[in-house]
Amino acid sequence: MTGRPRDDADRCFVCGPDNALGLQVAFRLEGGRCRGRFTPQRHHNGFDGVTHGGIVFSLLDDAMGNWLFLQGARGVTARCEIRYRQPLPIGTEVEADCGLKQRKGRLVVLEARLVRVDDGSLVAEADASFMLEDAGQLAAGGKQELADLTSATGSP
User: Which fold has domain 28-153?
Assistant: First the structure.
C-alpha cells in the first residue's frame, strides 16, 4: 500500500509532508512491513558529525507508528526500548524497516531496525508496544498477519 489513508498527521515531525521543519520521511507498506528512507543533514547533528540520538529514535518510533497509520489504525506508543548499535554519520542514508512481532487484543508489539543503505549495517533497533485506539484495517487482517508471521518465523 502506498499513499496516506488519512491526512490528520500531515504536520508530523517525522513523516508529515506539510511540516517544513520536519524530516519528511515517506513511509510505505511492502509485504506487511513499513519502510522509509532518510538522510540526516547538518542540522540533525548531535556532536562530532554524528546524527542526534533523538532523531534516530524518532525514525524508529515513527516507522512503527506508520505501520499502524498506513493501515488506517490509530494507536499510541505505550513503551519503546531502543538499542543503538553504531553512530550514524551526517549525510549517510538509512532505511527504517518495521514489522509485527505480536498482537493480542488492543496491544500490538512491533519491531523496527534502522540500517545504513551503503553497507547494510545496523545503526539501531527498537521494540515497542502500542495500544490501539482504532484497529482500522487491522481488525480484519491482524490475525492473518500474526499467522503469517508465526509460519514464517516459527514463533510470534
Answer: Thiol Ester Dehydrase; Chain A (3.10.129)
